[in-house]
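Hello forum,

I keep getting stuck at the same step: I have a sequence, I want structure tokens, and every attempt I make locally crashes halfway through. Rather than fight my setup again tonight, could one of you with a working pipeline run this one for me? It's a single chain of 245 residues.
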Amino acid sequence: MNNPTIDRNQIESMVRAAIRGASGATGQCTGAAVADQPPGWVDGKPNLRVSISARHCHLTDEHVETLFGPGSVLEPEKDLYQDGFYAAKQTVMVVGPRRRMLPNVRVLGPTRGASQVELAFTDSISLGIDAPVRHSGKIDGTPGCVLVGPAGTVQLDQGVIRAARHVHMNFADAEHFGVQNGDMMNLIVRSPDCGVVFEDVLVRADEAAKLEVHIDTDEGNACHLDAATEIKLVRQGGGACGCGG
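Reply #2:
Ran it on my machine without issues. Output:
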């Protein structure tokens, strides 16, 4: 596929969002870190962050070379809150049906075994793609798109999703909240005139993760996250244990 001709006015009218490693509205404590405590803990207790994950994509090593040239690798530009993950310097254009497109979609690293594009609902409408809500990696039967880079294009037969909300945590966090990997939680965000309770927040627990909820740009706007006065994470179906702002 040849690179599509892009009208500058169309590009300027596109909704653009920078990758935000963490929102300013976080349930964070003010104390100093203590040695020999679980990752992300402050003063001996979990330190909750809620981060807005803007549109982005994950690529395989093969697709990195196709899009950016033989021998290319992802170049870290900004570390994300979770150790070992980063926003790369590279971006791609995502092209949907009828040549609808989103320019400058950030690539996140490290590379993965399958390429995947994560959008908010408004992004999928803009592209003309009916992207389903899926947890990361669950891409079977999802729609595809075309990725355009400076050195080539990639046709994805599947992999475009609206990322389901989820929370990263380590095993000490999980014990604190009384949950385990695969459980569901509720995120309660209190903001002036537009508080929201987000249900079905998937727990993704491992040994090294730090406590962080990921929601997309639409969800962050819906609850006016930047103006939040209280944030709590609670076990779904009962239990009031939580770490709030």
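Residues 52-163 form one domain. If your local run keeps crashing, start a new thread with the error log.
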